[in-house]
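in:
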């Protein structure tokens, strides 16, 4: 079922974007697939899915940066680079597959080197969805974020909660609001 939904999503994306390589500079994408984590069990699909998405976006004329099994530093650097490229682009798209979690009402994408012993570690060890949103918002026409993130927190059983209450949304990511100009 997941593969069918994935195929449908790709077909919808393909129908949105005219396939003309002359517009590649105006279409930028950052594709991240994190599946091989250092401190929690691996996920099977993110790396494969990210490669499929990256290839599909390249066929649609996107300039694509692909990261698989990225550390926090790699994700942050790629996001800054992506933000520079997306500034003034027509379309800026980020695809993330891997673990995502909500802490204190904010959503976070989890790098493969995250340890997350405490909820207070999330700001230094994970990447906020808010920061991703800020980068795609630089596009002139469309900024799009596609998340294929697990809804469970694999760190929860060992994570100490110091300042933030337990998530109120029962394993779901918190609602995300677009940034408007």
């Amino acid at each position: 079922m997941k593969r069918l939904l994935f195929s449908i999503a790709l077909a919808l994306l393909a129908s949105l974007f005219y396939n003309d390589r002359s517009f590649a500079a105006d279409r930028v994408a950052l594709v991240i697939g994190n599946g091989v984590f250092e401190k929690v069990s691996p996920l099977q699909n993110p790396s494969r899915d990210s490669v499929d998405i990256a290839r599909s976006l390249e066929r649609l004329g996107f300039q694509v940066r692909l990261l698989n099994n990225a550390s926090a530093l790699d994700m942050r650097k790629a996001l800054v680079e992506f933000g520079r490229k997306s500034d003034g682009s027509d379309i800026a798209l980020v695809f993330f597959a891997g673990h995502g979690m909500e802490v204190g009402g904010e959503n976070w994408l989890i790098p493969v080197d995250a340890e997350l012993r405490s909820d207070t570690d999330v700001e230094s060890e994970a990447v906020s969805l808010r920061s991703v949103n800020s980068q795609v918002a630089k596009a002139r026409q469309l900024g799009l974020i596609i998340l294929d993130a697990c809804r469970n927190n694999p760190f929860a059983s060992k994570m100490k909660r110091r300042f933030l209450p337990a998530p109120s949304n029962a394993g779901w990511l918190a609602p995300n609001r677009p940034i408007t100009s």
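note: The chain has a mean pLDDT of 84.
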